[in-house]
TrEMBL record:
Annotated localization: Cytoplasm
Main localization of the protein described in the UniProt heading: cytoplasm
Protein name per its UniProtKB record: Ribosomal RNA small subunit methyltransferase E
GO cellular component assignments: cytoplasm
Gene Ontology molecular function: rRNA (uridine-N3-)-methyltransferase activity
One Pfam match: PUA_4
Keyword S-adenosyl-L-methionine belongs to the record: yes
Originating organism: Nitrospirillum iridis
Residues annotated as domain Ribosomal RNA small subunit methyltransferase E PUA-like: 15-60
Length: 242
């Protein structure tokens, strides 16, 4: 379980309401049962359930079993939210594939104007728990494409971070070559995938004029937006092993 609290032997930490409900109501756990708690700073610890009620509980941390993970791949995924629960699915798969930061982006042809940020953040925690990564990706609030591009290069987090734009038309570098170049120059990257309806011509024009943008191709077929998101992350993982 992801517990955002300082970890030390004998330390008590609170469970969230959802976690207490899951442990008590679904897993039928009781005080005295053991679990594994993790967070980015503390790593993974064995813990005893100390108290457990319907929607609250505490654990007592016993001993560290895994040291904090070395930082995973410093990869951002910028993507247009999708209908029908597919946004949650993108968050889940991007977490499994190691993304560090997930940025939902509002685009002209995007057909989902809002996201439930709490839900997406819960998806990311659940996916991190399932895939046993000791870090949870940052999920940012929905921002429009212009605001996202305006972050480069003023935002220190964007320094030396190429923005690879998945572009199914026009001149684009094969993704593998772009990833190899990025891993050779610091291992930071951001990937932007467009909405199901594609980028608007004005957006493509603006992206073409943006110096840190690198158009990348994902082969000769038109992929669904979620497929393209998984493809870019899977290629990165396959080439870097991260
Ligand atoms: N542009 C098409 C349209 O107008 O309907 C399809 C867009 S595609 C369904 C959604 C997104 O996936 C695109 O904006 C692009 O970012 C990415 N994508 C799909 N196929 C791709 C490919 N072969 N190479 C690079 N990116 C691709």
């Amino acid at each position: 379980l992801h517990i955002d609290a300082p970890f030390a032997a004998g330390q008590s930490a609170a469970l969230s309401g959802d976690q207490a409900h899951y442990l008590r109501g679904v897993l039928r756990q009781t005080p005295g049962d053991r679990l594994l708690a993790f967070n980015e700073a503390g790593g993974e610890w064995l813990a005893d359930i100390a108290t457990l009620a319907k929607s609250a509980g505490t654990v007592t941390l016993l001993e560290q079993v895994r040291a904090p993970a070395a930082a995973g791949p410093d990869i951002w995924l910028l993507f247009a939210p999708l209908k029908g629960g597919r946004t949650e699915y993108v968050v889940e798969k991007a977490t499994e594939l190691g993304a560090a930061r997930l940025c939902p982006v509002l685009t002209r042809r995007g057909d989902v104007p809002r996201v439930n940020l709490d839900r997406l953040r819960a998806n990311a925690v659940e996916a991190a728990e399932q895939c046993e990564r000791l870090s949870v990706p940052v999920v940012e609030p929905l921002a429009d494409l212009a605001a996202v591009l305006a972050r480069w290069p003023a935002d220190p987090l964007t320094q030396d971070r190429p923005l690879f734009v998945a572009a199914e038309t026009g001149a684009a570098r094969p993704l593998a070559a772009a990833v190899t170049a990025a891993t050779a120059s610091g291992g930071k990257a951001a990937f932007l995938v467009g909405p199901e309806g594609g980028f608007h011509p004005d957006e493509l024009d603006r992206l073409a004029k943006t110096p840190f943008v690198v158009p990348v191709g994902l082969g000769p077929r038109i992929l669904r937006a979620d497929t393209a998101a998984f493809a870019v992350l899977a290629v990165w993982q396959a080439l870097t092993g991260d």
